[in-house]
Amino acid sequence: MKDKQLWSNKLTYILTVAGATIGFGCTWRFPYLVGENGGGAYVLLFCIAMILFGIPMILVENVIGRRAMKNSVDAFSVAKKDGTKINPAWKIVGYLGLIGAFGILAYYMVLGGWVFTYIANIFTGNFDLSSAITNKVYTQNFYNQNIVNNPLMVGIYTFVFVFINWYILKKGIIDGIEKFVKLLMPLLFLCLLIVISGNIMLSGFEDGVRFYLSVDFSKLTPKLFIDVLGQVFFALSLGFGVMITLSSYLSKDENLFETATITGILNTIIAVLAGFMIFPAIFTAGLEPASGPSLVFITLPVAFSHIPFGNILAIFFFTMLLVAALTTSITIYQVIIRVLEEKLHISTSKATTFTLIVIFIFGNLPSVLAYGPLRDFLIMKRNIFDFFDAVSANIFFVLTALLCCIYVGWVLKEDAISEISNSGKIKSPFVKIWYNYIKFVLPVIILVIFIAGLTTF
């Protein structure tokens, strides 16, 4: 049995957790949902939801992970401090998280392949944004020809993205994930700031910011708030074992309240900054912000073509998307890899190779082909790509999070309080407030989200 590894320091852990949460949820999904839901109202509710739901839920998974210091399955079977054994049936929660992790990686890596496709074609000049495009026909045709109708090329770029993940992950948690996150996160912030800086002088900057931050209170509805809560799930990588796994490498001396709060704040800042990358450009080009999921891949390239050095800014933007996706995907993979390492007693390299090959064959390839030869193969009226997305987001993530809350509040009880207070060293009224909140209130909120998600099927 190899020695237990811990994060080198708190900053490294925070950067890794931030990387895990700053993926397509922040940089792709959040902006298009803002565009669809009237701008500032969605942003306001997202910030509120992060405080009321996101940070408390991060703490739930932190408690489970650091208390057990095991993989996301066995974390649910560690006996309590008084020697009371926990029913092994609780391991089902960990397995539900693994299924959810498989589901998101199945299509998430393909999105990475899409982004790679854009970067390569802009860089080689095959997708030219150096002169103003008057409508979306050009970008729609590119999307159709290179994404929808070219599964071979998307498959190749997806494989490249998977290979990069494999190269990092096979080195382990310290020499792999920790080392590369220290390089990737500054690169992500650099790309983010370059694109935002390029937008400041745009003619549509003021209109874009006004749409983005002005709150129309008539749009603040209960349904919108439930939708925002679902986005917080997606944005924070909750419900599929990421936070449990990452916090299992965290020192017992770290203040979980502090690290969870910083994580939530960083995620919110990046999500909000993503809007400053997108909406000024959209309004400068006179485009419709409510473009849905195609906002980044079809609408935004038109906007870049109206900006000086549009090709360069587009490359930085899509590079930022790719880095954000990479810092998330390596942590999701790590959930499954850690389980295989500890359950099967195999090396990190073997667990990594097995995990990525299986997901590539049974998840990534079907998702690639969902827009090609398998486009007519539907499950619950969805193609394979959309099915993986819908089932993971609306069922497995939410159900796992609900059971995590019940486990911490109703099974761990005093053990949870001891863990979050560092065995009583942290004297704060928030300890009891948090415990009662996640025991009585948060499960009800998650149950509402779960029921709302089921109505989409």
Automatic annotation (TrEMBL):
The record's keywords, sorted A to Z, are: Membrane, Symport, Transmembrane, Transmembrane helix, Transport
Q: What is its main location?
A: membrane
Asked if the keyword Acetylation belongs to this entry, the reply reads no
According to its record, how does it sit in the membrane? Multi-pass membrane protein
Q: Which Pfam families match?
A: SNF
Looking at the UniProt entry, the stretches that span the membrane are 12-30, 42-60, 95-120, 152-169, 181-205, 225-250, 262-287, 307-333, 354-371, 391-412, 433-454
Molecular function per GO: symporter activity
Subcellular localization(s) per the UniProt record: Membrane
Classify the source by domain of life.
Bacteria
Gene Ontology CC terms: membrane
Sequence similarity: Belongs to the sodium:neurotransmitter symporter (SNF) (TC 2.A.22) family.
**Protein's name in the database:** Transporter
Q: What is the lineage of its organism?
A: Bacteria, Pseudomonadati, Campylobacterota, Epsilonproteobacteria, Campylobacterales
